Every structure is written in structure tokens, then in C-alpha cells.
Amino acid sequence: MNDNQPWPLMGQAAASRAAEILVRYAAWQLADCAAYDLPLAGFLQEKTIALLVAATDEALSPASAAMHGSLLETRSDGLIIGTEGSRREQPEIALGLWRSGRVTWHQPLVPWLAEDGAMWLVPAPVAPAGSQSAYKLVPRHLRVDTVPWRAETERRDGFTRAIAAFAAVGEDR
């Protein structure tokens, strides 16, 4: 494992407002990775779906490179939330999916909130053209699907709802 930077900067998931919001929408039961040494000791995990969650103020690409080995070692998916250090209205997210001994990264993703209250991770507006995979946050897994909107107005409305959901939690504190 790599004990060098950016590990200490990635162990902030428990204190992340964005992680709290995503967990609430997904109905995940996250716990500390207390059984592990650094860097995993700073992560949160959802054991039922083999998911490690970290938050960082760093750029997503170096953070995902740093987390990569841990996902291979634990045979887990990974969710990195780029959060509070930025001035963005909502977090950018990197999602690493472990399958058959390989991890594939999907980034940048951003939250998108459907009219029915379902939270999705969808390609950020700055994502390369053709990035059409989306991930619905559900209790027992991350459901991979195509983007959940049919028209540009639906896409914009979902981003607006997600931004409002993240702002509302900030007002609750």
C-alpha cells in the first residue's frame, strides 16, 4: 500500500457533508474501516455492497490513482467525493468499480436528483462526449444504467434539485 500523500487528505469521509447526503439518499450503512491500517483507516465502508468511501479536497485523478491499490486489495468499489475545499455548488465524484480483478474509474460524476427523489451519479457537464453511464444510488448496490433524463430540461432540472438538496443540508447545521 502507498502511505504517501494524498492518503491523509482522503480520510475525511466521516466529516463530509456531501458523503452524509449521498449516504442518506442511498440508505447505506457506512462504518469506519477500523480493522485496517492507513490509508484505509480513514475511509468509510459499506460492507454489504463492498464499497469504500473517501472524501478529498484534492483533484480526483490523483486521489483515484492513490485509492486504486486499496480497491484491488479489498475487492471493493470506491467512491471518492471531491468536496468542501472547492467553491462548487455540488461535489464532483470519482467512482471505481472492481470487477474480475480490475478497477475501472468513472469520473467526473456529479449528483443528479430525479423527481421521484432517487439520487444518481451522472457524468459532469464537463465530462467527455459519449459519457452516458449513470449510477443510481440504492441500498444494496450501485445500479448502472443510462442517464435518467430524456430531454435537456430534465437534465437541468435534476441538477437544480441536487444542488438544492446539498444546500438544504448545509442550512440544517
Brief rundown of the structure:
The protein has one domain. The chain is built from four helices and nine strands, in the order H-H-E-E-E-H-E-E-E-E-E-E-H.
Structure description:
The protein is α+β, with helices and mostly antiparallel strands. It has one domain. The chain has helices at 7-10, 17-26, 60-74, 152-172; strands at residues 31-32, 44-46, 51-56, 77-82, 92-99, 102-113, 119-123, 133-138, 141-146. It has a nine-stranded mixed beta sheet. A hairpin with a 2-residue loop joins strand 8 (133-138) and strand 9 (141-146). The chain starts with 6 loop residues before the first helix and ends with a helix. Mean pLDDT is 81; it is low at 1-8.
Shape: globular
Kindly report the average pLDDT value. 81
Spell out the helices and strands N to C. Answer: HHEEEHEEEEEEH
* Terminal CA distance: 36 Å
Uncertain regions spanning at least 5 consecutive residues: 1-8
Please outline the major beta sheet: 9 strands, mixed
Structural class: alpha+beta
Question: With helices defined by DSSP (H or I, 4 residues minimum), what is the helix count?
Answer: 4
What percent of residues are in strands?
25-35%
Oligomeric form of this entry? single chain
Question: What is the count of β-strands?
Answer: 9
Roughly how much helix do the residues carry, as a percent range?
A: 25-40%
